[in-house]
Amino acid sequence: MMKDLIKYERQREKMVEKQIKSRGITDPKILAAFRKVPRHLFVSEALMDQAYGDFPLPIGEQQTISQPFIVAEMTRALQLDKDDRVLEIGTGSGYQAAILAEITFRVYTIERIHSLLIKARGLFDKLCYHNIVTKYSDGTTGWTDESPFDAIIVTAGAPEIPEVLVDQLAMGGRMVLPVGDQYSQNLIMLYKNEDGLHKTNLGGCRFVKLVGEHGWDQ
Fold first, then answer.
1. Would the pTM count as exceeding 0.85?
2. Which CATH superfamily is domain 54-205 in?
3. Which residues are catalytic?
């Protein structure tokens, strides 16, 4: 057991240095989160030895855990503060939520696939992430009762920016999401202030499609 812990700790450090820090993400809060969260626990036992590789991995239900750099880039784009309340659309494996929970005050995460949410919630409890609140629902409609949010992250590709999520973003809030067709998207960062919504294109990416009322059909 101790041998495995040391092995995965070394793999995490290598992941941070080679995949994240070397690509320009140097925020100490983000690097510390990636060094701490045990990514191998968020994939199946058969894939644990590949968990820290520079690529996404399947997690079942035709969903994936994103490449570590993409998780880091989306986290960086949110410009998070320790007092922020963050909404995540698409819990998936739970890895992105765990990273956010290391940095922010509270994470609200929604998943439409019940089996994935149950697995993720179990991991959150095991790892003592008591600042993660989960919900089984259509994430494209957001979480009105808990809004507004300081930041919103969408972890699946949307055909367009869901206005309902923009409405749930606080003034001064940030949102990051992939927007495009079902095969490729651009990672878009939005900043909301009194002058309106300001968009920045962070480059090409590829995510599973965002399914729901304000996304793609099933």
1. yes
2. Vaccinia Virus protein VP39 (3.40.50.150)
3. 66
